[in-house]
Amino acid sequence: MGEQSYDSLEGVIWFDGKLVPWADANVHVLTHGLHYASAVFEGQRAYGGEIFKLTEHSERLLNSAKILGFEIPYSLEEIDDANREVLDVQGYTDAYVRPIAWRGSEMMGVSAQKNTIHLAIAAWQWPSYFDPAERLKGIRLDIAEYRRPDPITIPCKSKAAGLYMICTLSKHAAEAKGYADAMMLDWRGRVAEATGANVFFVKDGVLHTPDPDCFLDGITRRTVMDLAERRQVEIVERAIMPDEMADFEQCFITGTAAEVTPVSEIGPYNFEVGDLSKALMEDYMSEVQPA
User: Fold this and answer.
1) How far apart are CA 289 and CA 207, in angstroms?
2) Which H, E and C letters describe the chain, residue by residue?
3) Domain boundaries, the chain
4) Which residues pair with 19 in a beta bridge?
5) What was the pLDDT predicted at 90?
6) So what's the pLDDT on residue 132?
7) 105 touches 115 (CB < 8 A)
8) Could you give the count of Cα atoms lying within 13 Å of 80 in the half-sphere of its Cβ?
9) Do 6-124 and 132-288 fold alike per CATH?
10) Which residues make Cβ contacts (< 8 Å) with residue 123, sequence separation at least 6?
11) What is the CATH architecture of 132-288?
12) How far is CA 6 from the centre of its chain?
């Protein structure tokens, strides 16, 4: 895609029930979602013309909005259909699809009960989240300064725009030091997740992953756990402390954007891109392809 800005891509965006030219899909500068982060979104990928686990994503979008105290004025079926319409009209078979819902401009202040709820869906062609060559040898992660907050301080089960502020800060800091991404701990000092992906570790053929009690239990995460179970791999969800990373043999992260990406390094800890990581990466790519 090169350096073209996202506000000047070609095509249309589904915006409040109708398709509008890409350049016209705008909001006012006094939109509540911009000032107070009252917005929720999804990240979805289409493979071979079909959006993988679309309905699960739409369900999470609706639930995220409810957690933030607003209701998206479209049904689950209408949201699914709108996503498919955007993909079809754009003419893409393999693409990234981004629905976002937000509070509008009627009230400007912390309180905004009367604001209209808007929904937009865009699709664009987006290759691998990480450099393909780097991905095959395992990406390098820094350990982030910021931590995932205590669930009593944030709506951690909502895919809410505001919760990604510390993710952007952490990823920028990691990239400035030559890393691909950052691993975030939680407020207790436990291993949590990368800035936009869940994490898994391998030791003696067993898969270990943090218990998602303060961050999203990702749709890709659950998909990979299902794939591991098909291979009769034991999966342990538990609290993982940073010093335990010294004893793990393999590591990979999972997410719609990251898919399944092996990790070779997290701060001072090193991992091999082993057979199980490679197998689950291949299994996932097979799983997302339409039958």
Assistant:
1) 24
2) CCCCCHHHCCCEEEECCEEEEHHHCCCCCCCHHHHHCCEEECCEEEECCEECCHHHHHHHHHHHHHHCCCCCCCCHHHHHHHHHHHHHHHCCCCEEEEEEEEECCCCCCCCCCCCCEEEEEEEECCCCCCCHHHHHHCEEEEECCCCECCCCCCCCCCCEHHHHHHHHHHHHHHHHCCCCEEEEEECCCCEEEECCCEEEEEECCEEEEECCCCCCCCHHHHHHHHHHHHCCCCEEEECCCHHHHHHCCEEEEEECCCEEEEEEEECCEECCCCHHHHHHHHHHHHHHCCC
3) 6-124, 132-288
4) 14
5) 97
6) 65
7) yes
8) 12
9) no
10) 11, 46, 86, 87, 90, 92, 95, 96, 97, 98
11) Alpha-Beta Barrel (3.20)
12) 18
Q: Which two tokens stand for residue 24?
A: 């016209």
CA angle 267, 271, 275 (to 5 degrees): 155
May I ask the CATH architecture of the domain 6-124? 2-Layer Sandwich (3.30)
For residue 89 the two structure tokens come to 């009209």
Residues 6 or more apart in contact with residue 75 via CB below 8 angstroms: none
Contact residues for 5 (Cβ-Cβ < 8 A; gap 6+):
none
Those residues of the chain that have pLDDT short of 50 are 1
Both structure tokens of 201: 């570790």
Structure token pair of residue 196: 């936009």
Strands 95-103 and 50-51: unpaired
**Active centre residues (catalytic):** 159
pTM for the full predicted model: 0.94
Q: What is the model's pLDDT at position 129? A: 64
